[in-house]
Amino acid sequence: MEAFESLNTQVLGVSSDSISKLKKFAEKNGITFPLISDGDKKIKSLYSGKRINYLIDKEGTIRLIQKGIPANEYFLEKIKALER
Q1: Which H or E element spans position 67?
Q2: 52 CB contacts (<8 Å, ≥6 apart)?
Q3: Separation CA 16–CA 35 (nearest Å)
Q4: Host domain of residue 63
Q5: Cα radius of gyration rounded to whole Å, the chain
Q6: Is-above-0.85 flag for pTM?
Q7: Rounded mean pLDDT of 70-78?
Q8: How crowded is residue 75: how many other Cβ atoms within 10 Å of its Cβ?
Q9: CB neighbours of 76 closer than 8 A, spacing ≥ 6?
């Protein structure tokens, strides 16, 4: 997470799970970034129902859409490229 923070980047996780379930998941897996409960699936309806990662710039523009779970290094490279 420090690598993302050093690039002034915020990581968020979104799930339809309850807040209590997300809290247990974060504790079990050592997750320190915010997890958002989307129980009513409003966020899901705005983006996608699949496991997809979005890189959104400070102006709110989606700069990258990546399906699956890419390595952190991949996203760090893309973030650095946006700063150039």
Answers
A1: strand 62-67
A2: 65, 66, 67
A3: 10
A4: 2-83
A5: 14
A6: no
A7: 83
A8: 19
A9: 3, 4, 7
* Chain position carrying tokens 């958002």: 36
Concatenated DSSP letters for 1-59?
Answer: -HHHHHTT----EEESS-HHHHHHHHHHHT--S-EEE-TT-HHHHHS-SSSEEEEE-TT
pLDDT digits (tens, 9 = 90+) for 50-69: 778 888 888 888 888 888 77
Domains contained in the chain, number: 1
State how far the Cα of 13 lies from the Cα of 20, in Å rounded to an integer.
Answer: 14
Query: In this structure, what CATH number is given to the domain that contains residue 34?
Result: 3.40.30.10
Tally of residues, the chain: 84
Is 75 in a helix, a strand, or coil?
helix
